[in-house]
Each structure stands twice: as C-alpha cells, then as structure tokens.
Write a structure and sequence with these properties.
Organism: Leptospira bourretii
Distance between the termini: 68 Å
Radius of gyration: 27 Å
Order of helices and strands: EEHHHHEEHHHEEHHHHHHHHHHHHHHHH
Number of strands: 6
Protein name: HDOD domain-containing protein
CATH architecture of the largest domain: 2-Layer Sandwich
Helix content: 55-70%
Strand order of the largest sheet: 2-1-3-4-6-5
Pfam family, one: HDOD
Domain HDOD: 233-428
InterPro entries: HD/PDEase_dom, HDOD, RNase_Y/CdgJ
CATH superfamily of the largest domain: Histidine kinase-like ATPase, C-terminal domain
Number of helices: 23
Strand content: 5-15%
Shape: elongated
Structural class: alpha+beta
C-alpha cells in the first residue's frame, strides 16, 4: 500500500503554474526544505525580511496540524470515538501523556495514516496568501479553542505576556496561535491576516501578507521626499571632479595624476591610506603618492576618486554613515576573499573590491531621514537593536536603498559596473548586462558579511548563486563564512578608520 505524504509544499505563482512539489516528514519540519521553500517565495516579491518570521509561523501551523492528526490516529488506536464527548474527555489526558513521552512514535504512526497537510502559497494583486490545509474535519472543541486564542492574542504585546497568562490549559499552552498574531502584528501587518476555513473533510488556516503596508499615495509622497533628498545632494567636490576627468584621459600618465593628487593634502592622505589598506592586498607600506596611484591602478582610480567624493559629501551630510562604511568595507573584503577562495573571475577582483565599497550608498539616505511621519515597523526578532532593519524599513516605505543609491550614483556619473552593483546587489539575477557576475559576487559577499549581525544564512541565498560558486552544503557555506571571518578580523583596526 502506498503511503500518502504527510506534508507537501506547493508554489502557485502569478502564472498559476505549479512550480514545484516536495515531500517532507514531520520530523523534518524544522528542515532545509521548508527554509529553502520560504526563501524562494519571499525573494520573489522582495519580502526577505519576513523570512524568519514566516518560517516560525508556518512551522507552528504545521506542528499544530500534525498534533491534531496525531490525536486522531491515537484515538483510533485506543478504540475511542473522537466525536464522543465522554471518549474525548477520557482520551485527551492519555494523548497528552503519550505526546509528551512518545512524540516520535505519535508522528511515525502518522506516516502510515491517511492524513496529510498541504502548505501552499498563491500571489494575489495586493497580497501573498499562505494556506496550511489539513485533510481532517475540525472538532467543535478544536475550532472554539483556536478562535479563543485568536481573540485573546489581541491583548498581548509580546510572547512573554502571553506566556505569563496561558490561554489554554487543556491540551497545550495555546501559545502557537498567539505567537503568530504577535509576530505579524509587530511586523506592521493588520489583523485581517488570519482566517480559519472549515469544511466537512478539511481544515484550512490562511495567512495573508499584504504587499504594501501603507497607502500608495503615502508611498508616492515618501518616494518623492527621497528623490528630492537625492536631487538636493551637492555635486562632487571640484578637486575630485578634476581628478576623475584626468583619470578618464586616454593618455594620462602616473606623474600627471599623482601631481594633481598632491595638490590636496586631504586627498593625498586618503589615497595613501587606501593604497596601503588590505583592499589591495598585503604589500610593503608605501609613502609616496606616485607609488600609491600605481598600486591602485589607472583602471581603478576613477572609482576610488568617486568613493572619496561620495565620502566627503555624505559624511558631512548624514549622521549614520559610519554604519554603512563599516559594513561596506567588510563586504569589500569578503568579495576579495570569495574570489580568491573560489579561484573564479580573478580579473574581477579589483572591480569587485571597489564596487563593494559603494554598494550601500542609498542606505545613508534611508538611515538618516526623519521617518517619524512613517508608521515604522520592526522585526520582533533582531540581533541588532541599534539599527532599524533595512528590509522592514523599505517594506514600509515602498522603496529600497538600492533604488535610492542608484539615483545617487546616476547623479554623480558613476561607471556602469558600479551602477549595476548598487542597483542589483540584492537581486543579481535581474542584472542582464555583462556585470551580472560582479553583482553575484557582491550579493554573496554582502550576505556572508551580514551573517554576524544575525541577517541571512545558507537558506536565504538564491540557490542558483550557491550553485554558481559551487557551494553545495550548509556546512560548506558555514565553513567559508568562518574562514572569511577569521581573515577579516586580521584587518579590523585598518577598516575602522578607512572611510570614516
């Protein structure tokens, strides 16, 4: 006899076409398959910041469904009628004891039952919908308990409050439904996100995630505010513009450009600092501008001058630029490590190192604006309490730091490769130019550099990018990240003052 799958995953995208279907046992609910599946869904519509929250919510719903099905199998094994009030009252304490002491056996029994759970998602015009469907009819007692939990969840601000006043003292603590509501409510999602649908042969919980948290009119106003902010940025300093012009000349020589650099003591100091930094590898320290520009290379000087110009403008204008430059340097170093580690695209080493320095320019604007007028939302689970999650912030604003950075870099006439990196470093698959590989390098380096801040993991990376860089297992990914972390720590003192 064939055994039906306990849980199936389904993806139904805008086309309505079934993309994939996978089988997973309950013992594997906290598993790579679910994490990868959620990652694919949220990346497709730029809701990456909800990855961990949705994983927690959907795992909870799957566990609850399996517990309900386990109860049905257990009652049948004991010869009890689930729908008989006396049998139910007698059997529940027995099931609680069995579930508490022999949970694995309970779920193994499910593998040989007719019960299964389907987790699916479909994309609507204004929201994304997740459905957890159980092919078992819900009991009146179960339905009442769920509705009571939903109603009670409104009075709790966090899970600790709910824990202190347990909603249910019969079959479980009842915190699962409460947790779902707290997580979504604290992510700025209105109370219309939860629906329970029951029929004669199924029970379905529907979670709806809106694609926009604030009205389109408000988003338009905020976007206009940001565009005005970018348009108000001054041009790059005249001396920087002159250096960029010289660097672009076909017949420029080292002496001409070094002589021009030396006319500005501040730029001279910056060039020497960058030339001696780990961005360009480990070298014998140099003290002359001529040797400094030679080490940087004519090909890279335009981008370095652009970086110095952006630094001068932004550092004088925005208060939180230290956060961005610190991360940008780290991403730059990780890009170097990635290329050297994989031994792929060594010719892109220096363009990757430099473009990574500039990939997050747009975040300076977003992090520094007064957003008190916006209904800001925060991810409940955050390892960085000093900084609003950019994913949450951008979901609220209806724009992204990549879009803002792209506008800034266009204004300052950045070269095409840096424009593409700024625009596509979170979505390299959207880059259709020759800079696609460069965008992939920065994308992966950015994630690896962010892991220490609790952002991203192996399962949040686009699988095609992992495949391209021949990273086939989570262990391999973690080992790589640990190697890069050790390498980077060797340069911690150098990066702290490089662009600040």
């Amino acid at each position: 006899m064939s055994i039906p799958p306990l849980i199936t995953f389904q993806e139904d995208f805008l086309s309505g076409k079934l993309i994939s279907k996978e089988y997973v046992h309950f013992s594997e609910i906290d598993c790579p398959e679910l994490d990868v599946w959620i990652g694919r869904v949220v990346r497709s519509i730029s809701l990456e910041f909800l990855h961990e929250i949705l994983f927690t919510i959907l795992s909870e719903l799957l566990v609850n469904g399996c517990k309900a099905n386990g109860k049905r199998v257990f009652f049948k094994e004991q010869g009890l009628n689930l729908w008989d009030e006396k049998d139910y009252a007698r059997g529940i304490p027995m099931y609680k004891d069995e579930f508490g002491h022999n949970r694995k056996r309970v779920f193994l029994a499910l593998d040989h039952s007719e019960y299964k759970i389907t987790l699916s998602t479909i994309f609507k015009e204004d929201y994304i919908e997740f459905k957890v469907k159980n092919n078992a009819k819900i009991l009146p007692e179960e339905k009442n308990r769920i509705l009571k939990r939903v109603q009670a969840s409104g009075k709790y601000k966090n899970i600790n409050d709910a824990y202190r006043e347990s909603v249910d003292n019969e079959e479980s603590s009842g915190l699962g439904i409460v947790l779902i509501h707290i997580l979504l409510r604290n992510s700025g999602i209105s109370n219309q996100f939860f629906q329970l649908v029951t029929t004669e042969d199924s029970t379905e919980v529907i979670i709806r995630i809106p694609k926009q948290l604030i009205p389109k009119e408000s988003q338009t106003n905020i976007k206009n505010l940001l565009v005005r902010e970018v348009n108000s940025l001054p041009p790059l300093p005249p001396q920087i513009q002159k250096l960029i012009f010289i660097a672009k000349k076909k017949d420029v020589d080292w002496h001409e450009i070094s002589a021009q650099v030396e006319k500005d003591p501040a730029i001279t100091a910056e060039i020497l600092k960058i030339a001696n930094s780990p961005l360009f590898g480990s070298h014998t320290p140099i003290i002359s501008v001529l040797e400094g520009v030679k080490r940087i290379g004519l090909r890279n000087l335009e981008s370095i001058f652009l970086t110095l110009g952006a630094k001068k403008v932004l550092n004088s204008r925005y208060a939180k630029q230290v956060l961005v430059w610190t991360h940008s340097f780290k991403t730059s170093m990780y890009a170097r490590f990635l290329i050297e580690d994989r031994k792929k695209h060594l010719k892109l080493l220096e363009p990757a190192v430099i473009s990574a320095l500039l990939h997050d320019l747009g975040r300076m604007v977003l992090l520094s604006l007064d957003l008190s007028q916006v209904n800001q939302i925060r991810v409940l689970r955050s390892d960085d309490n000093n900084e609003i999650s950019e994913w949450v912030e951008e979901y609220t604003l209806g724009t992204t730091h990549s879009e803002i950075g792209y506008l800034m870099s266009e204004k300052w006439n950045f070269p095409e490769e840096i424009l593409d990196v700024i625009r596509y470093h979170h979505k390299p698959w959207q880059c259709k130019s020759r800079n696609n590989i460069l965008c992939q390098i920065i994308y992966l380096a950015d994630i690896l550099a962010n892991i220490g801040r609790g952002k991203g993991n192996y399962f949040t990376v686009e699988p095609e990018v992992l495949e391209y860089f021949e990273i086939t297992t989570e262990k391999e990914f973690r080992d790589m990240q640990e190697r890069f972390k050790i390498q980077f720590e060797e340069h911690r003192e150098e990066y702290q003052n490089l662009l600040i």
